[in-house]
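Record type: ASSEMBLY
Status: queued
Input:
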Amino acid sequence: MSARVLVVEDEKLVADMVRLNLEHAGFAVTWVDKGEEGLARAREGFDVIVLDWMLPGLDGIDVAKQLRREQVTTPVLMLTARGDLSSRVTGLDAGADDYLPKPFAMPELVARVRALARRAAPAAPVARASGRDIILSGWTVNRDTREARRQDGQGEPINLTETELSLLLFLVSHPGEVLSRADILETAWGMDRAPTERTVDNYVMRLRKLFETDPEHPRHFLTLRGAGYRFEP
Ligand code: CA
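Status: finished
Output:
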């Protein structure tokens, strides 16, 4: 599957050139010309975002800041005519990962996008937290409504409890890591309640029932004997 790039750029000529070159390099490109729309689309979970600084309305800095506030970790390449040092620092502080002053050579843009896509690759498996959504094999879980919906639109949405959601979020945010029951208790449960480690097991079983194709032979929510759990995307 080709990496998906979101291009947020209000100058059509620049956007066309960027799109053409990225597509030629094998990327799937979505182009929008407004910051507001860029912000909304960015939450869908792209591999890289090419973000122009100067946009009418919400500018690139606003968009980058808001994305980072929402914990969207998609790498951002900021484009701008302002090449001086202080604005570069502003861009990076806002959450941009890389910076390319205009005018730039297309091969350089493509190379930088490719580098960011490579960096993003481990963070874009079938399960990830993307903005307000948790994307999990075949499911999308909304963190605000705690509603889990199948991506194919089949069946009724399921409502997760607050604890189920925070456990899910914790596991999905630490893919491949060994998580002890104590780690999980500390993060997923508030200090006002003191459930036993057995409670963790029950909740993990519940997540398996919800999200595993075969809950008896889990592929994502794995038990590590004597150690705890590991989430595999
Ligand atoms: Ca612009």
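Annotation: The domain at 129-231 is CATH 1.10.10.10 (Arc Repressor Mutant, subunit A).
Annotation: The mean pLDDT is 85.
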